[in-house]
Structure formats: C-alpha cells, structure tokens
Amino acid sequence: MRFFLGLLAAAALAAQTQEQHGKRVVDEALAALGGERFLAMADRVEAGRAYSFYREALSGLSRTTISTRYLRRPEPPVAGKLAVRERQSFGDNEDRGAVLFTDGQGYEITFRGARPLAKETLERYRESTLHNFLYILRQRLGEPGLIFESRGSELREGQRVEVVDITDADNRVVTVYFHALTKLPVRQVFYRRDPKTRERIEEVTIFSKYRDVGGVQWPFVIQRERNGEKIFEMYSETVRVNQGLTDELFLLPADMKILKPLR
Description:
13 strands; outer membrane lipoprotein receptor (LolB), chain A; 5 helices; alpha+beta
C-alpha cells in the first residue's frame, strides 16, 4: 500500500514539475514578446501581401490589411468566449471589400451590402482564434482550467525548441514550439474535426520574422498549413499597435443592406 501511495505521489510530483516547466516557458515567451506592453496592446493593424493556396498551388493574392481590436475581458476570463473584433480588408482603399468578425457574427462586405458568413466559417474562425497562442497570451491568461504542460525540448529544422501543450477547461489543446534562445513562439499545432465527415484535421501556424513594434515583438510573416499543405501566407510590410481603433471600423453601419446568406 505504501509503495502504491509512493507511486501516486511520484506521479503527482512529475506532473506538477511538467506544469511548472510549461508555465515557465510561457512566462519567458511573454517577456520576450514585450511583457506588460504586450498585455496592454489594445489594437493592431497589419498591412501587407496575403497569399492563398490550394493543393500547394497559388490560388489568390491581394493587398491585405488586418485590423484587430481586443475587447475588455472579464476577470477571470471565461472559457470559450471571444474578446476580440477583426476586420480583414482587401485591395487599396478596401475597393475589393472586407470580411468582418465581430461579437460572434461575421460578414462579407461589398458595395452591394453585408452578407452573413456561413456557420462553418464562423466556427473555424472561432476555434482558430481560441487556439492561437498569441491570442491566448493576450486574452486568456488566468482563465480557470487553463494549464501549461511541458513536453521537453527537441530539435526542429536544426533549431532547439521547447514544446508546451496548452489545454483549457473545454479540452481544447494546442501544442506550441518556442525557440530555445529567443524564447519566441515559432510554431503551433492543433486538431479539429470536419463538421460533416468528422475526420481529424491538423492546423499548423508558423510565426517568423519578428520585429519590434512599439515595444511589442510581432511576427511579420505568418504561414498556415492544413493537413500538411500550405494554405495561407501573410507578409506584413507594416504593423502598428495602439492606433485608437473605434467601434465604427468593426460594426456595420445602421443603414447597410444585409444580404441573404449564400446556400
């Protein structure tokens, strides 16, 4: 009996050590990203070139501006609640339209009006955001049930990285890879289920080319892969933080025509 209890105690100690190590790696990443300045980032505007791919072949490119505004989060944060608004604009002066994600809704905006996005698109955006390490760090720290567990270190593409699993109270898991020297996140992986086939889908995001933006380190190149195939790349030419973005940019005008959703 004593031997069994000893094994339980040893297992508990090992698990605690993994969590402590994971929390330390995340704390170091926060410091590398800007610490309090990162946590105080109210909004952000990224402008540059975006590329989309289908089966590894280029399927689209555009001048893109992504405007993000972080909302005041409840204390403690609520699991599964998005506290952010985002507007993706395409072309110069938004002449090619925009996509808006706000308050659990989404719209494609053109000169014809605002068309509600498909439910599947909204859910994919929601899950991608909740799994995004940079969002987790800005909006979800202190959330009840959020734990960090170290998986140790490994070599990836010739560089030593620290690997941490982040799990929330709803059993969402994202695995994040941190550069051993810079402490910055360089890669993350999570899995989701196809809403129709229920097949497991691997979603990978790669962060690189970090630069200082008003005391915040931000990746100027972001690449996304799905099931091993590249689907998106964003090369930012400028990134600005704390621009005083207002609700006007993220809410539909009262007189805007709402179009019927596409079937």
